[in-house]
């Protein structure tokens, strides 16, 4: 393993780069491939303008050698979630060519819009080991660690037909105990077996008792209270208006939760929100909370592999079913 200065400050900078082109050029390739754009990565080590703060704020880097990267991006014709090999020379690490990073260009267009949303580097192949954590992660905009890089994810750019694109990506050394500070959910970076759980809510007006489709948001922690790992932060339901019929409607809000061996507990807090259809003085208030186990969630599954959702009601006469209760009751 080469010794890098980044190990003392806990930061690496990765750049999307084509090895066959200079960083300044966007060379065209054969006309037979003119409706594809190409992306690859090279690691370039350095610091941001806040490197002096890293020693106290960012975890130390692993001494393991990076061998694979996970890249998640969207483009005009779809999404890519690819595991790509990393190679090395005397100075740098870089990705091998991978067909999944050949991005199609829409018919009749000369370029496509690309948004890089997730970037993680591993010392091994995560496809062969679902419990393998990354060693470097690119932080996301709005996360606590975003301040330690100059350009957090998501990074948006145009990719031209027949070109190979260079886009810098900064990554920080990773500690899975602080996963949310990078802007990722726990199971984004440590793949696990998942279990699905869905909710649906109604709100009743205090003066008329009229039922409305509820707007609400959900926070979820691993464990039996809010001291565990944060799994979802302010996940918000969407209430839509259907003009043909003039009704408001919503789909159940579904979450994917880590399902390990043994008993898993998940602690929920559900807050009521205003919608375009109603306003309540309790907007933002936690109206239900409590813990549910993976076994409790599986009780909502039916024999035909369909599932029921947890249906709660706020301000209505009927009581809500366990395990969620009004706080402090």
UniProtKB/TrEMBL annotation:
Keywords: Signal. This is DUF1735 domain-containing protein. The keyword Signal applies. It comes from Salegentibacter echinorum. Residues 1-26 form the signal peptide.
